[in-house]
Design a protein that fits this description.
The structure holds 2 protein chains of 2 kinds. Chain A is an alpha/beta fold. Chain A is built from 13 helices and 17 strands. The N and C termini of chain A lie far apart (about 55 Å). Chain B is of the alpha/beta class. Chain B has 3 domains: about 60 residues, no CATH class; about 250 residues, 3-Layer(aba) Sandwich (Aspartate Aminotransferase, domain 2); about 120 residues, Aspartate Aminotransferase, domain 1 (Alpha-Beta Complex). A 7-stranded mixed beta sheet of chain B has the order 1-7-6-5-4-2-3, sandwiched between helices. A 3-stranded antiparallel beta sheet of chain B has the order 10-12-11, with helices on one face. In chain B, strands 8-9 form a two-stranded antiparallel ribbon. The chains are: A alpha/beta, B alpha/beta.
């Protein structure tokens, strides 16, 4: 298939090595382990492969999508993929040899810079796997900073983020995790005050939260700091085109799912974990960071730096085991942010707010109810008079993904639908949604 | 050349106030009509203001500063930089896959779920393991998944005293780092004089405190653990599990099934053996396969086939939990599936055979110049070292930089740690003899330079956009953003 040596090549090479058969190279493997029977389908030519994969793609149904819940549909400008899919970016690896990797290194530096500007934060890593793993690593890092034992988190974090947080941290000796309950769709401030104690390492909250509601992040940040704890913010990077930044409200760590910045949904992967923090915590950052260096002629150049945090140097004492990251997704995000610029990102974020509120207003006019009345960005909770899963099924039959069924995560919200509206939805799409809901 | 002279100019330095690329329609009402001002940011972020053409040139010119597989031989050991077929780029970006939401109704996602299911079946077949999860996002993430699977298994068995993971000193740094993240004590064992596991050292380290032994097979000096079955028996007799780091699976694909060695669990790197591109550092994908008795502890959900439909099974009461927000890096899995569908039982075997042939050809051809640290047949990569007395003070790092001038990316250097001045060369099966010969000639030529004009090598590279970078200068007062 993609093997390049001819039989003649092979003969010459075997001769050079001084053996008669390639099989002689596998003598360290016991013969009874070698060449097992393999039950594999026939090999496909490229043409047949295209047909097969297209057939599979056609088994997915294109939906008019109103689901968000951690992965969003956004318009991706053509220049994003046209540039990031260049072989020079796509088929290079981690820029260990900096002199022959300045392209990748400079784009990572620009990514870190753009995210720092957008978040108002001082340090950004080269990338992490996704929002959930970035959050877990941020809480672990915060714990290492002050060595306190309890990690508090808001019940309104994405349910999968909570699960990943538990997966990552339940195995670390002496760390405990505790959830702060909700009131009216946001973290209960009174409960938070009670739970913040002198053994609290950090408090993690999302704004907008999983229910779409904006939380008073500045207040939570101040409360955490009063208790001597750190504040870990989960933010919406595209929303930050207009929303208050974690830098403005004093977050110590701010993480996000960056898929919404120029990356396709792809059934949820690859995503883009964004990891930022204050300068003081730079040595707790997991994974790669690029910095400016000088070459021997004194020219500005770019290089992987502060590597003493990383697994290939520190082994079991490393800040994290992360090696491969999501570099190409970070490149997509960088190109996207560069294309938008400071004006464009404000325009897109404003469109998200406006379209989501337009749909909410249309639904209210139609007699529907929303569950929470606080301010929201591009997602809100619609309260139906029957289980959300039934409505989802009915609308799916009409080619509409109605939203995320909150009954999946909370029995008391089983009549609630989490609806997301982005800039991709036209007035006609909104009307289609309203009509479909009217008819069921 | 004019563009090249601008090679290290940042986008923000090309920014001109008021210049625009992309425009959007204007929202009917501004955000502050909907949201109280305390929720809004005070000033716009400092992002570049450029035209679309400026941006296209900026990134195109940056890309040209990279060595990449599409342009250069990239013998980076342990990274398996094989050709990434163009068809897979096109197919993995088909709109039917790319625009699918992870919470879309499962009836609307049958194509993707079927593909994932089929990929799991193929991975089971080539490894002999009973069950696979495609959830992990990278190799190291797969390691963590595997070790946490083992932890959930021992917890279910009530064996809480198993608090140690044994790792040989040749292991990738991710192995000990992973074990530590999972809350285990790391027990390092020395390798034997032949580069393989020292069975006596292993026996001494094994006890009823051992949870897992992590081995890379073939190991990081490029050798197959010839006593692997015996080692697996020792591990199992101690009641522990054998984890195989499958980063080097390209040496074995189609030739041997890890389950037959006695491996209980392993991860694969789809961005290595299975031809998905490395993307300048990721995304990768690190599926984990396990023996039947461990399947119920894998992260949830798993993709299953039920009544003719492909579904996620979330009902896994003993699962270790979730490892990431959504199920796996699908776009990467897609490429691996394409790769596996282009081979059958006979041709898949050729992948490993040609990869091993290429590595041994390089090893033998360079023997007089840069000898292999372990002078014997290797697997898919060879680990070379320096003949110190002939090197005129030149070190491996210098040779790596000089190779760039010859138009080759450098091998992995200074790893594994047990080999002094290591150069780990992995040609992969997609290179041919001519390209290896050019590399071999370059290495010989560098050897001559070291003898005759060591300064040339010492000061390399000479033909890159930048000269040798002083890495220490970056760490002194870190400048990490504009």
């Amino acid at each position: 298939m993609f093997i390049s040596n001819t039989a003649e090549n092979e003969k010459e090479m075997l001769q050079k090595i001084g053996i008669s058969s390639v099989k002689d190279l596998f003598k360290d493997i016991s013969p009874d382990l070698l060449y097992p029977a393999l039950n594999l389908p026939p090999a496909l030519t490229e043409q047949a492969l295209h047909a097969h994969i297209k057939e599979l793609a056609a088994k997915n149904t294109k939906m008019l999508n109103f689901i968000g819940a951690g992965c969003e549909e956004h318009f991706i400008p053509s220049a994003v993929n046209a540039l990031s899919q260049r072989g020079e970016f796509l088929t290079a690896y981690t820029p260990y040899q900096a002199e022959a990797s300045q392209g990748t290194l400079q784009t990572i530096y620009e990514f870190q810079s753009s995210i720092c500007a957008l978040f108002g934060m001082e340090v950004c890593s080269a990338s992490h796997y996704d929002g959930a793993t970035a959050l877990a690593e941020a809480c672990a890092a915060a714990q290492r900073v002050n060595n306190r034992k309890k990690i508090l988190y808001s019940a309104a974090l994405h349910p999968h983020y909570k699960e990943v947080l538990h997966t990552y941290l339940k195995n670390v000796p002496e760390i405990s995790l505790q959830e702060v309950p909700l009131k009216n769709g946001i973290t209960d401030g009174e409960k938070l005050k009670e739970l913040l104690t002198d053994d609290t390492a950090c408090f993690a909250a999302a704004g907008p939260n999983f229910l779409g509601q904006l939380e008073p992040m500045a207040e939570w940040s101040a409360l955490a700091h009063e208790a001597g704890a750190l504040f870990v913010a989960v933010v919406h990077p595209l929303g930050l085109g207009i929303l208050q930044t974690p830098g403005e409200y004093g977050a110590d760590f701010a993480v996000a799912e960056g898929q919404c910045l120029g990356n396709a949904m792809h059934f949820g992967g690859p995503g883009l974990g964004i990891f930022t923090c204050k300068q003081a915590y730079v040595r707790q950052v997991p994974g790669r960071i690029v910095g400016i260096a000088k070459d021997k002629k004194g020219q500005r150049s770019f290089v992987l730096t502060l590597q003493a945090r990383e697994q290939h140097i520190r082994r079991e004492k490393a800040a994290s085991n992360i090696c491969s990251n999501q570099a190409l997704c970070a490149l997509n995000a960088l190109i996207y942010l560069t294309l938008l610029g400071p004006q464009g990102i404000q325009e897109v974020a404003s469109l998200n707010v406006a379209h989501a509120h337009e749909l909410k207003d249309l639904l209210l006019q139609d007699g529907h109810k929303v569950k929470f009345d606080g301010p929201f960005y591009n997602e809100f909770v619609l309260e139906l008079n029957r289980p959300a899963c039934e409505v989802i099924e009915k609308l799916a039959a009409q080619g509409i993904s109605a939203g995320f069924d909150l009954g999946r995560v909370c029995e008391s919200l089983k009549n609630c639908l989490l609806v997301c509206v982005t800039e991709t939805k036209t007035k006609q799409d909104l009307q289609t949604y309203v009509n479909a809901l009217r008819g069921c | 050349m004019q563009e090249n002279s601008q090679h290290n100019v940042l986008s923000i330095e090309k920014s001109v106030p008021g210049r625009r690329a992309l425009r959007f329609e204007k929202a009917e009402k501004a955000a502050n009509a909907y949201l109280p001002t305390q929720f809004l940011r005070e000033k716009a972020p400092r992002l570049p203001e450029m035209s679309e053409l400026d941006i296209v040139r900026h990134f195109t010119n940056l890309s040209r500063l990279n060595y990449c597989l599409d342009s250069h031989f990239y013998p980076l050991g342990s990274c398996t930089m094989k050709y990434n077929p163009k068809a897979y780029d096109v197919l993995s970006n088909l709109d039917g896959f790319a625009s699918l939401h992870p919470f879309a109704p499962q009836v609307a996602a049958q194509g993707t779920l079927e593909l994932l299911y089929n990929l799991q079946e193929l991975l089971k077949e080539i490894t002999g393991l009973a069950c696979f999860t495609l959830q992990p996002a990278a190799g190291a993430h797969g390691e963590l998944t595997g070790i946490l699977t083992a932890k959930a298994y021992f917890q279910a068995k009530g064996q809480h005293q198993r608090t140690e993971v044994i790792v040989p000193d040749t292991a990738h740094g991710t192995n000990p780092a992973t074990s530590h993240m999972a809350g285990y004590q790391v027990v390092n064992i020395k390798s034997g004089a032949d580069g393989c596991v020292d069975k006596e050292a292993l026996q001494k380290a094994l006890s009823d405190k051992t949870a897992v032994v992590m081995l890379t097979i073939p190991n990081t000096v490029g050798l197959f653990e010839k006593d692997i079955c015996e080692i697996a028996d020792m591990v199992h007799k101690a009641g522990a599990l054998l984890y195989m780091d499958g980063a080097n699976f390209n040496a074995l694909i189609g030739v041997a099934k890890p389950a037959s060695f006695g491996v209980d669990m392993m991860h694969l790197n789809l961005h290595k053996t299975f031809a998905a591109p490395h993307g300048g550092g990721g995304p990768g994908s690190g599926p984990v396969g396990v023996a039947a008795h461990l399947a119920e502890f894998l992260p949830k959900p798993l993709v299953e086939k039920k009544d003719g439909l492909f579904v996620f099974n979330e009902n896994m009461p003993h699962s270790l939990g979730k490892m990431k927000t959504f199920y796996g890096n699908l776009a990467v899995c897609l490429r691996a599936y394409c790769f596996l569908r282009q081979y059958d039982a006979d041709t898949l075997r050729q992948v490993a055979q040609q990869a091993v042939l290429n590595a041994n050809y390089v090893r033998v051809a360079l023997k007089e110049y840069f000898p292999a640290f372990f002078d014997r047949v290797c697997m898919h990569e060879c680990v070379l070292t320096l003949q110190k007395e002939k090197m005129n003070g030149i070190r491996t790092a210098d040779i790596a930089k000089r190779l760039l001038d010859y138009g080759f990316y450098a091998p992995t250097i200074y790893f594994p740690l047990i080999v002094p001045e290591a150069m780990m060369i992995e040609p992969t099966e997609t290179e041919n003899k001519e390209s290896l010969d050019r590399f071999i000639e370059a290495m010989k030529s560098i050897f001559q330079e070291i003898v005759q004009n060591p300064a040339l090598v010492h000061d390399a590279p000479h033909q890159q956009p930048v000269g040798r970078i002083d890495e220490v200068s970056a760490a002194r007062e870190p400048n990490l953003h504009w």
